[in-house]
Design a protein that fits this description.
heterodimer, A: alpha+beta, D-Maltodextrin-Binding Protein, domain 2, Dipeptide-binding Protein, domain 3, 7-stranded mixed sheet, 13 helices, 19 strands, globular, disordered N terminus, B: mainly beta, Rossmann fold, Methylamine Dehydrogenase, Chain H, 2 domains, 6-stranded mixed sheet
Chain lengths: ~450, ~425
């Protein structure tokens, strides 16, 4: 029944009503609009469509072959060998080789990687680590480690091996065209047009006049979107909003970090700013993934925070925030919370802050295997925490030990949502809530 | 913050159906959790609290509590009042995969945690009777539990043979036989497709009347399987040989006699898409549009070929003429003929409309050019992705995909659908 409940929820949220079902049609162009950068990591739509990883994540959270055909580990998961799929070519026609894979991985990760070294071994790529890396196949499915060519194509676009290739960027519209000779099945649609840096207001307007097929709905605007009768497709909570604390400078004092953790009022963020969307969390992983999130208390305790701060009057702290207006509001609210606990906090834009004391950040839940998901979040936070075991008990222990350091303070888990026009069908989400446009088809395709 | 440590023992409790039948499903997890608690706490008294954050019905909580108290008592841990120095908070929780029972054992300022996994029981479904009644029977083949098949791997077609079940998947064909406990892979072959299987991959399996050979069709490829009997007594059960090769040959889509492909019509499949091109052999004297499905339906004046076009229109090809069939608004892309013996004797079984989480099948009769419902809708447990007539024509098989998302892979099952007359 659990599985059925999960499936019912998911599909009810994702499936677009259709008048009559036929098998998916080929052809046509999907028009998508986004507020940010479609190449951003993680979760950028274009990144998903153009690049592949050595592995990909199955819906059940297990890694499956992608550019790597198979893999094996030795030495207690300290050495992993990934055998590359033969015959794969980048969009520019150049072959995918083990040197090109290693070069791509080194380019995106040369410090603080999940591995210690990566090297070529014939037609394979070998990763070695100082400690066991049981989650490496899952981590390699993440957006951080997708493989790109060092060259660019004729249109000046980046070159990958994915189901779509970049064919143009003009007037704020990135055009991706179906890759007919890829190693995967050809997508149903012929092309995807992504209009970038489009405000949410303009996205919704374009959807209403049929100039867009898929637009974004920030979590805090789910209610207004439904009030406007948009067809909203919301994922389960997959985006972690968390406060990241520096472990140096004034916040090198663990008591001050613990005081900050206790001073944050998650309830106000949830109820007021994010309009009761998603769930309050003090756990790095959502409850649906682990079932143990309740073991991390979410309550605020100002008295305890005062007690931990003691007689220290910390100097003013900077809180950097990246993202839209809701995150700015959330940062202001957190600053207010901390002021009540004796901290003075100045909210600054992330782009202008070089070494902030605190950062309000979003993290994507890229896989649904708890141990790998935890390691992925910790990696994104710049924390190299080895997780030598994959069991739920070991994951809980690692998470508990990490959170005790108060380097990262989980606040909310938010859904990722989109609104869709009537042309799209078979739209599904990846585990992190990103739409899978390679699988989508159009009702009115020729 | 309270000190919390975890007893690094988490045990999976797999509750078999047999166990369900013979005892409470909660006995084993309660016993396991009690053992863990007792090993942490040792003999003594503790205040026991249970809270339910799961979908376990509230009326089952007292029984779970009784089991836990009994099992704890048997291990020397006695339930006491709230003023006890020790306390045990048991949370009945769950995630998308399983149930999880968590015990927080508090001794003074120290809290320790123990967890037990509890797999959810498998639910059974039922069908509703009607005038012509469709019934489904799930084949005892848990596809995603078969060796070599990854979660989410698609199934295109299946057919039973004298020595097991032949399963056709996008890139592989294999023979599976039921073992003592699980189905196991006996033999398999790469389909040798010249290019990646298209999305929404499709396939067709045609077996011989004696079940000792078959032909499989998938995009751009064809396989022939032949059963090789043992050379003599005591030389084993025999084996199959599979021969696959790239092929653009047409697929036998509709047979007057399902066991004899030469009696029917073949159609060319678009190997880069998910439909038939409309070119058939032998020619029917009329240009056909591209179509997804076809079925041969007996008529008083000869058989008619019914096609479901990619434009959603259902049409009949009779005597060199293409005629639209009305009453098919509720048809999906897939249909097959069923010789039920009820009513007109033969019905079309069609999948339902819309992208349904729970697709449906319904029987229709076509006395003329209008489809008339002949049964109630039979609810399926997912989306019907393939539908074909069984070898004897008296049942149809459906491949059903149970859509899933984060946390669980799509599941495929094969249902045999039969009809009975009321």
């Amino acid at each position: 029944m659990l599985r059925q409940v999960a499936i019912s929820f998911l599909v009810a949220a994702l499936v677009i009503p259709a008048a009559a079902r036929t098998r998916p049609h080929y052809g046509g162009t999907v028009r998508v609009e986004v507020e940010g950068d479609p190449w951003q990591r993680p979760g950028g739509l274009a990144r998903r469509l153009v690049f592949d990883g050595l592995t990909a994540m199955s819906a059940d959270g297990t890694p499956r072959p992608a550019l790597a055909l198979d893999w094996k580990s030795e030495n207690d998961d300290r050495r992993w060998q990934f055998r590359l799929r033969s015959g794969v070519r980048f969009h520019d026609g150049s072959p995918l080789t083990s040197p090109s894979v290693v070069a791509s991985l080194v380019a995106v990760c040369n410090t603080n990687c999940p591995w210690t070294a990566v090297r070529v071994a014939g037609s394979s790529v070998v990763f070695t680590g100082d400690s066991p890396m049981p989650n490496l196949p899952a981590l390699l499915a993440g957006d951080d480690f997708r493989i790109s060519s060092a060259s660019t194509n004729g249109a000046g676009g980046v070159v990958g091996t994915g189901p779509f290739q970049t064919t143009g960027f003009a007037n704020g519209v990135l055009t991706l065209t179906a890759n007919d000779s890829g190693w995967q099945s050809r997508p149903f649609v012929d092309s995807v047009e992504i209009r970038v840096r489009r405000s949410i207001h303009d996205q919704w307007l374009d959807l209403s006049v049929n100039r867009a097929d898929l637009v974004e709905v920030p979590a805090e605007q789910l209610h207004p979107a439904r009030d406007q009768h948009l067809t909203v497709l919301a994922s389960p909570p997959v985006t972690l909003l968390a406060l990241q604390l520096s472990s140096s400078g004034v916040l090198g004092d663990p008591n001050l970090r613990a005081a900050i953790a206790l001073a944050v009022d998650r309830g106000v963020l949830f109820n007021v700013i994010f309009q009761k969307q998603g769930e309050v969390t003090a756990s790095l992983l959502p409850s649906a993934l682990t079932g143990y999130a309740f073991l991390f208390p979410t309550g605020r305790d100002l008295n305890k925070a005062d007690e931990l701060r003691g007689s220290i009057t910390p100097p003013p702290l900077t809180l950097a925030v990246e993202g839209g207006s809701a995150l700015q509001l959330a940062a202001q609210r957190i600053a207010l919370n901390l002021r009540e606990a004796g901290f003075t906090v100045q909210v600054v834009n992330a782009a202008s802050a070089s070494h902030p004391d605190l950062r309000l950040r979003r993290f994507s839940l890229e896989c649904s295997q708890p141990s790998a998901a935890l390691e992925s979040i910790l990696h994104a936070a710049g924390q190299a925490v080895p997780l030598p075991e994959q069991s739920l008990a070991a994951t809980f222990k690692a998470e508990h030990d990490f959170l005790n350091r108060n380097i990262l303070i989980p606040l909310l888990y938010l859904p990722r949502a989109y609104a869709s026009g009537g042309r799209l069908r078979d739209l599904r989400f990846a585990p992190d809530g990103a739409p899978d446009l390679a699988q989508v088809s159009l009702e009115d395709a020729p | 913050m309270k000190r919390v440590s975890l007893v690094a023992v988490v045990l999976s409790v797999l509750m078999s159906l047999a166990a369900h039948a013979s005892s409470s499903p909660w006995e084993q997890p309660a016993r396991t959790l009690a053992e863990e608690i007792a090993s942490i706490l040792g003999p003594g008294q503790a205040h026991l609290t249970i809270r339910n954050l799961s979908t376990i019905p509230t009326d089952q909580i007292p029984a779970i509590r009784r089991l836990l108290e009994q099992d704890l008592k048997a291990r020397g841990v006695l339930s006491s009042g709230a003023d006890s120095a020790n306390s045990i908070l048991i949370t009945l929780s769950e995630n998308v995969r399983e149930r999880l029972w968590v015990a927080e054992i508090v001794e003074g300022n120290e809290t320790r945690v123990a967890m037990v996994h509890v797999e959810p029981p498998i639910e059974r479904t039922s069908t509703t009777p009607e005038s012509i009644v469709l019934r489904k029977e799930r084949l005892p083949l848990m596809l995603n539990n078969l060796p070599g098949i990854l979660p989410g791997d698609a199934l295109l077609a299946a057919v039973d043979t004298s020595s097991g079940m032949i399963l056709l998947r996008p890139e592989e064909i294999g023979l599976y036989a039921s073992g003592e406990v699980f189905w196991k892979g006996e033999q398999g072959a790469d389909m040798k497709q010249p290019r990646p299987a298209p999305r929404d991959a499709r396939g067709l399996l045609i077996r011989s009347s004696d079940g000792k050979s078959f032909t499989a069709y998938a995009a751009g490829t064809e396989c022939v399987g032949i059963f090789m009997p043992p050379l003599g007594a005591g030389n084993g059960p025999g084996s199959w040989t599979f021969q696959c090769h790239p092929s653009d040959d047409p697929w036998p889509i509709a047979q007057a006699d399902p066991a004899n492909p030469s009696t029917g019509i073949k159609a060319f499949y678009n190997a880069a898409r998910d439909y038939f091109t409309g070119v058939v052999t032998p020619s029917l004297g009329v240009d056909l549009p591209p179509f997804y499905s076809a079925a041969m339906l007996p008529r008083p004046a000869g058989a008619a070929l019914i096609i479901g076009g990619i434009d959603g229109k259902v049409q009949s090809v009779e005597k060199g003429a293409l005629k639209p069939i009305t009453g098919t608004r509720d048809w999906g892309s897939d249909f097959a003929v069923l010789r039920s013996g009820c009513g007109a004797g033969t019905q079309i079984i069609a999948s339902g409309p819309g992208e349904a989480v729970s697709d449906s099948l319904r029987a229709y009769e076509l006395p003329a050019l209008e489809a008339i419902p002949a049964s109630a809708s039979l609810s399926m447990d997912g989306t019907v992705t393939a539908l074909w007539t069984a070898h004897d024509g008296k049942s149809v098989f459906a491949v059903v995909r149970k859509a899933a998302g984060p946390g669980s892979a799509d599941q495929y099952e094969v249902d045999r659908v039969t009809a009975s007359c009321n």
